[in-house]
Specification:
2 copies of one chain form a homodimer. Helix content of chain A is 48%, strand content 28%. Chain A has 132 residues and is of the alpha+beta class. Chain A has 2 domains: 1-30; 31-122, 2-Layer Sandwich (Alpha-Beta Plaits), CATH 3.30.70. Chain A has a 4-stranded antiparallel sheet with strand order 2-3-1-4. Chain A is elongated and about 80 Å long. The interface between A and B is large, with 36 and 36 residues. Strand 4 of chain A pairs antiparallel with strand 2 of chain B.
Chain lengths: 132, 132
């Protein structure tokens, strides 16, 4: 009887450990989605594009917990060349972002301003990195 | 006598306003330096390079108030292609960074690992942007 109890306790403990292990693996798999969007804009539409992008980024950061940053820069020597460092909490946060009214408005509104769009999936060197 | 005082007060006030205006203009001129470093690494040295870069970034963020971020990513499809979003508080902070022991150690230590380096000066769309 005493051994049976000890055995049950052991099985229970092993179960807890396995559960913790699986959860951890799932968390790692569902890690941050980090991407570089490389965009070239029609120069005659650059100011309109920037206004639309600013509005979209402002709304995304304010309304979506899972959008961790959308850091956009324009090259000084080629101002129509925009790069955005996009960080989403996970793949689900990214999928949810695509369905938001502000993203859909931006995407449809800027369709004819964008000459090319390259989406480059990346792995961050230090995923906990912030901006001071 | 009364008018003279009022005139002096007016000149003093105008002086303060002009000083504030000039300070503001100087602050804007001395604004953030935001850059993309695009680096291609010798594939046989990739792990050594990443270790050296991680050490350098960790030290820069910890020891230098003016280094606001060094967010490094590797492309998933081309892991030897590294991009770093570099944000410095201003040009002086960047110049000071170049003189630090950790930067000099990184620069000399990785010289033979780097196949190409392109430094692209940029203008941020929203300079106050952070990472949540």
């Amino acid at each position: 009887m005493k051994y049976k109890r000890a055995l049950l306790a052991l099985i229970y403990t092993l179960g807890i450990i396995m559960l913790a292990f699986c959860n951890n693996a799932a968390a790692q798999e569902k890690g941050q989605k980090v991407r570089l969007a490389k965009i070239i804009i029609d120069s005659s539409q650059l100011e309109n594009y920037k206004a639309a992008l600013t509005e979209e980024i402002e709304a995304s950061l304010r309304l979506e917990r899972g959008v961790l940053t959308l850091y956009a820069v324009a090259e000084k020597e080629n101002p129509t060349h925009i790069t955005i460092l996009e960080i989403y909490a996970d793949e689900d946060a990214y999928k949810a972002h695509l369905q938001t009214p502000h993203f859909i408005k931006y995407k449809t509104g800027t369709k004819n301003m964008v000459k090319s769009l390259e989406l480059v999936e990346t792995i961050p060197l230090m995923p906990a990195m912030k901006i001071k």
